[in-house]
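Study this fold:
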Amino acid sequence: MSKKQIPRIKTDKISLNDISVFPFFRKYLVHKLAGGALAVIYLIAMLYIGITYHVVGDYHVETDFFQAYVPSAKDILKGIWTIEDFRGPAYPVLLGLFSLVFKDFFVAGIIVSTVTASLTLFFTFEVIKKLFRFDIALIVIVLTAFNKIFVQYSYTAGTDMTFNCFTAATIYFLLNNEHRSWLNIILASFSATLAYLTRYNGIFVIVAIPLMVIMFNIYKIEMKQRIILSAAFIFSFFLFITPWGIHLLIEKGSFFYNKNYLNIAYEMFGKGKIGWDQYWNVESAKYSSLSQVVFVDPGLFVSTVFKNLYEHLFSDLELLVGWGIGICFFAGIIGLWKQRPNARQAAFYFFGILMFLVLLLVFYGERFSMYLIPVYTTFAVGTLTWERWRGIPFYNGVIVAAVLIVWTFVGSYSYNRLNIDSGPKEIKVIADWFNANIKDADESKVVVCRKPHIAFYINKTMRYFPYVNTFEDLERETKKLKADYFFYGIYEANMRPQFQSLLKPANAPAWLEPIAFTSTPPSVLYRVKY
């Protein structure tokens, strides 16, 4: 063949979809087990880190774990389906099953979070790989796996990562196949049900998924078929939640019973105006429904939502993913006029937008936005491959991505190094002494405390610290609760400062007998005397 017959390839015409940011890794990424391998590596690493270093539950998210999820899981194992005011039964069921294997509920909680975090990475990698590119999927997953909040809730015992996993699974089953699959629709519906039964704000999927199917035509089918498919999703979703809904209807009088409107009321009327304890002990009783919360002051409701629109966004970019990714994200927003996503990519972003909008109703927390980490990151990483950057001297997308990865890892290491063992170690010290010396195994006995940790570690029933101001009232209300034990520590001193003298056992009133105490920080476990 002559030189004139040799075809010439114009490299500037090659699609970006054919160029790998990391060409040396491409042959491994295209392997069908790549996503699973990445998830297993993360699982092994985080199981070691979590079980080794996270030995005491913290005073933040894990308060709910000890106070609500463990008792619910114990009840479920006894065949009792307790109804919690703010969440469904999915997480306690999962926790109960894991506890049968690992015995210790706290260890089981850590393992549940780590397993669901690894599954989240798998589902996310597979979806982004299909919708975008293998190399983009790799960078996004590494950035997600190193994200400080994602790491924190991979070892934190709570519902956050479980909800994140079920939400990611919903999108995985919906978008993993370009062609309509009834099995995938059913699996997406079942995953959405589990998300809803983990956190009730998951109800937004019955709007989000049909809109994705109808508006973006993700399966390239006729409108009539899209409507039928959407109806099938909604029908199966309600079919799956019906057993729990009927239980709620019988016990509470409502198929959708929950009190999450109180969280919305706090965001509207409590945050920054009154203390947390005052709201939940006094002010929350004023609200009885979502409609009441909305219409008691519609103007304030609307203005709060609009204010949260930009406050939550900037908080996500600063606190959740960091401004390095945030700057690339804004570059992508500006470039949308020219670099537009295809229909399936747009559907992926649309689901993230709806998730973001739902969260505008409640107070901000980075953990609530965890699902959005790969959404922001995918949008940001996609900008690194733009053809327009090629004209910039010394620009290299690989180097920029590597800097983001190292920067994210360093920040995550510093953050979690401080947080992973931030729990109240003094409680564990007191509990270990109590269990070794008092040996009171009756878990029906009551301990009064502000946080439930001591109740968990000495295996007693918690009763909430009375919201009172005098020692006379405290004695009366404590004895009304038929308390056997009473705990007072640093957190109680912060929230009930009028009783700070209880930090010193020598100052205890006659009705409290000191059993065990620590000095640094100070905390005391008392026996209640009648």
